[in-house]
Design goal:
The complex is a heterodimer of chains A (187) and B (68). By secondary structure, chain A is an all-alpha fold. Chain A contains seven helices and no strands. In chain A, helix 1 packs antiparallel against helix 2, helix 2 packs across helix 4 and helix 6 runs antiparallel to helix 7. The longest helix of chain B has 26 residues. With 68 residues, chain B is an all-alpha fold. In chain B, helix 2 runs antiparallel to helix 3. Chain B contains three helices and no strands. The chains are: A mainly alpha (187), B mainly alpha (68).
């Protein structure tokens, strides 16, 4: 039963994660955190960080991660297969259609309309993670604000947006920064 | 991590704004409100966006036919 649930859950993620790696995030969050409760929001945030720092697409890495966490190695295989199956079938079909009808205005229009929706979904997932960093799952009140997290976020955003630093370097530096603050405050 | 994601969003969002298409901008805002504030299933939002795309394609085709 759990294998079937994992397969169907990641089949949906694979089917609807249109628009690249980050587009899969809100779907994974909806399935894994909200619908099945397999991971907490904190574990989900860790999962995204691990999936981002390792080679390969976020959706596939997440499928393997969640599969192993829930049902061991067979779970990882089932979830990963569920995740890649829709794109395997759809891309094969689209390639066939594309070469037959190269100028598909409807397809172009659908893709152009999906783009803004996908941006909004990624923004929503990003803000959920930011709120988790800032308030740590507590009520949104001034006394719950994690100021170290806020400062690290602001510096990281600046480094990425203005200085165009490598995202992995920024994540590592944030980790080191947070660790350093933890060590200093414990002395 | 949030910074990495929101940096990507800023880049992609700027691309959508560059299209200067009011329909796409409204789609973006509506999709955000639907998912963030109303927790509407992501799949319905994507399907709605597909419908918007099909409607736009039909509208464009009719417009071209009228001009011709």
């Amino acid at each position: 039963m759990i294998y079937l649930q994992l397969f169907l859950s990641f089949l949906q993620i694979g089917l609807f994660s249109i628009g690249g790696g980050y587009a899969a995030m809100p779907l994974i969050q909806a399935q894994v955190v909200q619908h099945y409760g397999w991971l907490t929001m904190n574990e989900f945030t860790d999962l995204i960080i691990i999936a981002e720092m390792t080679p390969g697409p976020i959706a596939v890495n997440s499928a393997t991660f969640v599969g192993i966490r829930i049902a061991g190695f067979p779970g990882a295989l089932v979830a990963t297969f569920g995740c890649i199956l829709p794109s395997l079938l759809i891309v094969s079909l689209l390639a066939f259609i594309y070469y037959r009808y190269k100028t598909l205005s409807v397809l172009q229009s659908v893709l152009a309309s999906l783009r803004p929706a996908v941006v909004a979904l990624i923004a929503s997932a990003g803000i959920s993670i930011l709120l988790q960093v800032v308030f740590g799952g507590n009520e949104m009140m001034l006394q719950h604000i994690n100021w170290v997290g806020v400062i690290l976020f602001a510096l990281a955003f600046l480094a990425l947006r203005k200085l165009k630093w490598n995202p992995i370097l920024v994540m590592v530096l944030c980790g080191v920064g947070n660790l350093a603050v933890g060590i200093i405050s414990s002395i | 991590m949030a910074a990495v994601i929101l940096d990507v969003v800023a880049g992609l969002g700027a691309n959508v704004l560059k299209t200067k298409s009011p329909t796409h901008m409204v789609t973006m805002v509506a999709a955000f409100i639907a998912t963030f504030f109303f927790n509407i299933n992501v799949i319905y939002i994507l399907l709605a966006a597909v419908c918007v795309g099909i409607a736009l394609a039909i509208y464009d085709r009719k417009k071209k036919e009228e001009k011709a």
